[in-house]
């Protein structure tokens, strides 16, 4: 269980005020908020990339700072080093997260065989997004934080992502996925979290 207790986040402006919630395995949570309201800031705070003003994040009652290998978060394809290949990233994540996932199978599943060993600077946005999703799979982490994961994907691949999310959750994972489009998440989520005006409202779907 990923637990947030009395979390308050402020950057240049207030983002979230005194929020507590328990994220359970085998559940999908949709974080819905307008652009600029703090979705990414919340993800960064969970991952200890920025401090929260107050509050605590734990996994199974242990500080999340000691449990980060049980979580996977890759904020955006803009994080990729264009001189490296998708293959480099897949092998790196597999090694660092000590995963047993078959990388070659993932490459075939996401139809990356023709380009995965090329430098990422040659990739289109859609190619980068498929690689990004494959990194979540290859990590095999129990807790997956996905920030606007369907950006740049065509309808066919968006549907494939949502199908994959269902499979991952059924296999025992927890997924927190953000979007500013409510309709994107309604069919895949067990809970919807609405962030606006520093307040989080949770609704069971």
UniProtKB/TrEMBL annotation:
The ABC transporter domain, residue ranges: 2-205
Keywords: ATP-binding, Nucleotide-binding, Transport
SUPFAM superfamilies named in the record: P-loop containing nucleoside triphosphate hydrolases
InterPro entries assigned: AAA+_ATPase, ABC_transporter-like_ATP-bd, ABC_Transporter_VariousFunc, P-loop_NTPase
A Pfam entry, by short name: ABC_tran
UniProt GO molecular function: ATP binding; ATP hydrolysis activity
Database matches in Gene3D superfamilies: P-loop containing nucleotide triphosphate hydrolases
Name of the protein in question: ATP-binding cassette domain-containing protein
Organism: Pediococcus parvulus
Lineage summary: Bacteria, Bacillati, Bacillota, Bacilli, Lactobacillales
């Amino acid at each position: 269980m990923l637990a947030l207790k009395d979390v308050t986040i402020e950057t240049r402006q207030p983002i979230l005020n005194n929020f507590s919630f328990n994220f359970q395995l085998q559940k999908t949570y949709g974080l819905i908020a307008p652009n600029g309201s703090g979705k990414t800031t919340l993800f960064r705070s969970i991952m200890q990339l920025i401090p929260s003003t107050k509050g605590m994040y734990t996994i199974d009652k242990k500080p999340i700072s000691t449990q980060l290998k049980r979580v996977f978060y890759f904020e955006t394809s803009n994080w990729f080093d264009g001189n490296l290949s998708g293959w480099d990233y897949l092998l790196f994540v597999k090694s660092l997260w000590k995963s047993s996932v078959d990388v070659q199978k993932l490459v075939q599943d996401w139809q990356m065989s023709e380009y995965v060993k090329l430098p990422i600077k040659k990739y289109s946005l859609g190619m980068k997004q498929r690689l990004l999703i494959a990194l979540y799979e290859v990590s095999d982490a129990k807790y997956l934080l996905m920030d606007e994961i369907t950006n740049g994907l065509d309808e066919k691949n968006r549907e494939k992502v949502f199908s994959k999310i269902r499979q991952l959750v059924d296999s025992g994972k927890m997924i927190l996925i953000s979007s500013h489009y409510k309709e994107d998440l309604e069919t895949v989520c067990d809970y919807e979290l609405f962030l606006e005006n520093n307040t989080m409202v949770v609704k069971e779907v």
